[in-house]
């Protein structure tokens, strides 16, 4: 039994199965996801769990080499915009392009976040070890 980090079995399994360049997303409660893309639904009510703590946990478990968000985040959710651009150096895309890219994801992690545009598309990297 794990004593730290992510304990949600389905989420941990999906993260462990990621390979270099695989795409996955962490989303708010309202992001439309194509029917053929699996959703790991963590939302238990609007606002729980929030986007940022879920993203923090995932980033502690996975190497990420690139990130993208919706350009609409800047006008509608400044806190999420700062998180995406300052911390992740996410490229901001036209919202329709961002949503179209969700179809390429291995899976989407849905939070209970109730603030708009708290979504990020992530590309898995490789945790190269020093020898």
Please describe what this structure looks like.
With 131 residues, the chain is α/β, with parallel strands linked by helices. Helices cover 31% and strands 20% of the residues. The protein contains 5 helices and 6 strands, in the order αββαβααβαββ. The chain has a 6-stranded mixed sheet with strand order 2-5-1-6-3-4. The N and C termini lie far apart (30 Å). The model has no long low-confidence stretch (mean pLDDT 96).
Contiguous low-pLDDT stretches (5 residues minimum) are none
N-to-C SSE string, H for helix and E for strand: HEEHEHHEHEE
How far apart are the termini? 30 Å
Average of per-residue pLDDT values:
96
Number of strands: 6
Give the C-alpha Rg.
14 Å
* Strand content range: 15-25%
Main sheet record: 6 strands, mixed
Shape: globular
> Helical proportion?
25-40%
For the biggest β-sheet, the strand order reads: 2-5-1-6-3-4
Helix run count: 5
Structural class: alpha/beta
What does the secondary structure layout of this molecule look like, with pairings?
Blueprint: H1 9-17, E1 23-27, E2 39-41, H2 51-61, E3 64-70, H3 73-76, H4 78-87, E4 91-93, H5 95-101, E5 108-110, E6 120-124
Parallel strand pairs: 1-5, 2-5, 3-4
Antiparallel strand pairs: 1-6, 3-6
Nutshell version of this structure?
The chain is of the alpha/beta class. The protein has helices at residues 9-17, 51-61, 73-76, 78-87, 95-101, and strands at residues 23-27, 39-41, 64-70, 91-93, 108-110, 120-124.
């Amino acid at each position: 039994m794990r004593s730290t980090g992510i304990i949600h079995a389905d989420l941990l399994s999906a993260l462990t199965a990621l390979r270099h360049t695989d795409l996955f997303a962490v989303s708010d409660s309202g992001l439309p996801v194509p029917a053929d893309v699996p959703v790991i639904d963590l939302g238990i009510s609007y606002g729980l769990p929030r986007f940022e703590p879920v993203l923090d946990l995932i980033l502690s478990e996975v190497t990420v080499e690139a990130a993208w968000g919706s350009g609409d985040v800047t006008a509608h959710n400044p806190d999420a915009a700062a998180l995406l651009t300052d911390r992740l150096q996410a490229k901001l895309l036209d919202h329709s392009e961002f949503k179209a890219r969700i179809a390429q994801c291995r899976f989407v992690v849905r939070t209970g976040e109730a603030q708009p545009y708290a979504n990020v598309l992530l590309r898995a990297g490789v945790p190269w070890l020093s020898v």
